[in-house]
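Hey, resending since the last one bounced:
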Amino acid sequence: MPYTYSQELLINTLAKEKVRDLQQELYGKGSVISDRQREALIRECREYQELLYQNRLNRQLEVR
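The structure tokens again:
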């Protein structure tokens, strides 16, 4: 089932916020996290970045 344009924009907005939060947690000053937490955050951040990439590709393909 394809998403409507407004749903895709909502997904895009929420994913961007999540990536921003994860990057702040990873690279923010005063952030003390263990190596295991860091690896988990990096993995989660990459997953959201991949979601954003796929979302953008889907929108571009639908426009054509």
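The mean pLDDT is 88.

Sorry for the duplicate.
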